[in-house]
Amino acid sequence: MQIFGVDIGGSGIKGAPVDLDRGELAQERHKELTPQPATPDGVADRVVEVVRHFDWNGPVGVTFPGVVTGGVTRTAANMDKAWIGVDTAALLSERLDGLAVTVLNDADAAGVAEMTYGAGKGVSGTVILLTLGTGIGSALFTDGRLVPNSELGHLELHGHDAEKRASVKAKEDHDLTWERWAHRLQKYLEHVEMLFSPELFILGGGVSRKPEKFLPLIEGIRAEIVPAKLQNNAGIVGAAMAARGAST
After folding, report:
1. What pLDDT does 247 receive?
2. If we measure between CA atoms, which residue out of 147, 122, 134, 132 comes closest to residue 208?
3. 208 membership: H or E segment, kind and range
4. Is 230:114 a contact under the CB 8 Å cutoff?
5. Strand partners, 157
6. pTM of the entire predicted model
7. Residues of 103-136 as b/e, b for ≥16 C-beta within 10 angstroms?
8. For the segment 1-37, what is each residue's pLDDT rounded down to a tens digit?
9. What does the angle CA 157 – CA 200 – CA 68 come to, to the nearest 5 degrees?
10. What is the band of 248 on the pLDDT scale with cuts at 50, 70, 90?
């Protein structure tokens, strides 16, 4: 069974049909750059380009980097503030000529995919997936059940939003070495572990392709730490899963 998934990020918008029997992309994904400023109309244009690249005509799942309830985007930390309060599911459905669109938080989508097909499969207790990119997204699970819109990237760390210090964008903006960035990430993980005592941390986002660069540098965390198995495709897969769930 194939369903289309789109992952909206602060720097790129990528999507592909997903084979949900295997939890893998059915075709090589297509990516468009996120417009700056990342307004609803501008981003919707790019989503349409991604979907039409495949001549897709069926349900579409879409992730958004912020709180999403009932298809409405409630926060937009790394997107244009015009997104706040927008019925994003309705907007994208209209722009896609009436296709059924399901919208959910990006990290929640990645987390559901990892818990079903990837690093969290079969793991009980508390599991936290963190997507490390333009910001830090989070998906919180207890015995496999998602607590949606956890937004742990906005926990305070040394007087700042944690994602302002420990995201991949923070590494790039401050020209941090892997060692210095891993130290910041470790401090963040210590803080999250103190609050939630998870059995497992899954680290996703593009950086999950290079775990050898930073995971060996993180010390003192009791929970197991592993890279996301689906790497940066987890959001696309999770978006497609959400669309399938909404259409059945």
Report:
1. 73
2. 132
3. none
4. yes
5. 160
6. 0.95
7. bbbbbbbbbbbbbbbbbbeebeebbbbbbbbbbb
8. 899 999 999 999 999 999 999 999 999 999 999 999 9
9. 65
10. low
